[in-house]
Write a structure and sequence with these properties.
Blueprint (H helix, E strand, L loop, with lengths): L2 H9 L2 E4 L1 H6 L11 E4 L1 H9 L6 H18 L8 E2 L11 E4 L17 H15 L5 E4 L3 H9 L3 E3 L17 E3 L2 H7 L4 E5 L2 E7 L11 E4 L5 E9 L2 E6 L18 H11 L5 E6 L5 H15 L5 E6 L15 H5 L4 H12 L5 H15 E4 L12 E6 L6 H8 L7 E6 L15 H8 L6 E6 L6 H9 L1
Parallel strand pairs: 1-2, 1-5, 2-4, 5-6, 7-10, 13-17, 13-18, 14-15, 14-16, 16-17
Antiparallel strand pairs: 3-4, 8-9, 9-12, 10-11, 11-12
Helix pairs in contact: 8-9, 9-11, 11-12, 13-14
């Protein structure tokens, strides 16, 4: 091989794909830029075995097969590799290589040959020995597979292309603390006025250029300040002060904000101009309670929405809700314990009517809250609804898009979740649909986000969360 060609080949890596990567992201074939992609025959066999059914995994397996069919159909010489340039619209300039003959990599005797994972490891070993001049890397979502590869001295990586953020500590929190220096730097041309019971400030300066729409600025101290970025043009911003929901006079369906972040959340939830709200936080920070309180106040008191629709992911995600007896609502009941717990708290605030009054109120509330399964959301349009998506961290970005695009005129969508509690395989904190929407919607005039920090369940729950 000429030296020049050898050097060029050594720069181009060879990525061997595990089946779970194709089932996680069917378009992964086009995500490796100038590098080559190798598909073992066992990967195609496993892909074929997963294509039946209506689950997200089966849909992805079928889509991956369709992509492969299109590529193979137009190929002249499969042995030499199939160019990905045309199919990927020049996003990938490498080649797709399919296994066309048996490859024998000598694995340790302790690894059973019949297992698909070990067959793929054997192929990676054989390619590594056959092409020592280039990097051969296994790509798998399976942690144990990557550990086995490392133990055998083979390069292995997770599939990173679906990750919105490498580090979730960098995820937008929705609120920013400011100090006196902020006012000194940006307050030279400060204008303020009052309108409709709220104060407004217009200022410009270098510290305003990086602020996002609906980001909340706050300052502690003796005279606490909290305001929302209402508009931004270049280095000029307009701030609107927040309502104080921590006082019982401003309670929302009997609920008051117990800390700063809860107050910020209630301001976003109660604002008619904000159509999309995301609330992140650990268990016990009040995400579901605040959202239900706001939903009931806006639906029953202000009549802004016709009803509340609540849905949550039934793990395994998107699978059939099964053969439990009853209607869709009754089948969803085992997953909706959180809803009933929060309704008990919200009902307690209505003590005037006694037990009969509370029972009547509870029936009224339940009649205005519909519990829906994610499986039956496709093709629907919700008009004037308050849509709550609970446990949203278990959704993929694609499922999240499917749900949010159901919103018709006058509908508000609220996504709740805790990215530290992901229950589904192949999703991480960085690739969760919740992380995806927080990052993508963060500078839209009609979207707001808050990360709730403090647990408010009880002193026992707070202490346990800290020490256990």
């Amino acid at each position: 091989m000429p030296a020049k060609k050898k050097t060029a080949l050594s720069r181009i890596k060879l990525f061997v794909l595990d089946t779970n990567v194709l089932m996680h992201d069917p378009s992964c074939l086009f995500r490796f830029a100038e590098h080559d992609v190798f598909l073992p025959m066992i990967t195609l066999e496993e892909l074929d075995g997963h294509k039946k059914g209506m689950s997200e995994v089966a849909r992805n397996a079928r889509q991956a097969s369709r992509f492969l069919d299109e590529l193979v159909r137009d190929a002249d010489d499969i042995d030499a590799g199939i160019s990905l340039k045309a199919a990927s619209h020049k996003a990938a300039t490498g080649r797709l290589l399919l296994q066309t003959r048996a490859l024998d990599g000598q694995l340790p005797a302790g690894l059973p040959v019949g297992k698909a994972d070990n067959q793929i490891l054997g192929i990676v070993m054989a390619l590594h020995l056959a092409q020592p001049e280039r990097q051969v890397i296994l790509v798998s979502k399976d942690i144990n597979m990557r550990i086995k590869a490392a133990a055998l001295g083979l390069a292995a990586e997770d599939y990173f292309n679906d990750q919105v953020l490498e580090d979730t500590d960098l995820l937008y929190s929705g609120a920013r603390e400011i100090d006196q220096g902020f006012w000194e730097k940006n307050g030279k041309n400060l204008k303020s006025w009052q309108e409709g019971g709220k104060s407004y400030y217009r200022m410009s300066g270098p510290g305003c250029a990086n602020l996002l729409l609906n980001e909340i600025l706050w300052q502690g101290g003796e005279a606490p300040f909290a305001a929302r970025v209402l508009a931004r043009e270049g280095k000029t911003i307009t701030l609107e002060t927040l309502s104080d929901y921590s006082h019982s006079k401003h309670s929302v369906w009997g609920v008051t904000a117990r800390n700063r972040e809860q107050n910020f959340a209630l301001n976003l939830l109660m604002n008619p101009e904000i159509d999309f709200v995301t609330l992140l936080g650990q268990a016990g920070t009040g995400k579901t309670l605040l959202t239900l309180a706001a939903g009931l106040a806006l639906t029953l008191e202000e009549k802004r929405y016709s009803e509340i629709i609540m849905t949550r992911v039934t793990v395994p995600v998107g699978e059939d809700i099964g053969f439990l007896p009853g209607t869709e609502e009754e089948k969803m009941a085992p997953w909706m314990g959180a809803l009933d717990d929060n309704l008990d708290v919200l009902n307690k605030s209505d003590d005037d009517g006694g037990d009969w009054g509370r029972a009547a109120t509870r029936d009224l509330i339940r009649s205005r809250i519909k519990v829906k399964s994610l499986n039956f959301m496709r093709g629907r349009t919700f008009l004037n609804k308050f849509l709550i998506i609970d446990e949203a961290q278990n959704l993929t970005p694609k499922q999240m898009k499917t749900l949010i695009t159901r919103a018709g005129p006058g509908t508000k969508v609220v996504c709740l979740g805790n990215i530290a509690q992901i229950d589904t395989p192949y999703l991480t904190e960085g690739s969760s649909g919740l992380t995806y929407v927080v990052d993508r919607m963060k500078n839209w005039a009609h979207a707001g986000h808050i990360t709730l920090q403090r647990g408010e369940r009880s002193r026992l729950a707070d202490f346990a969360a800290e020490v256990l």
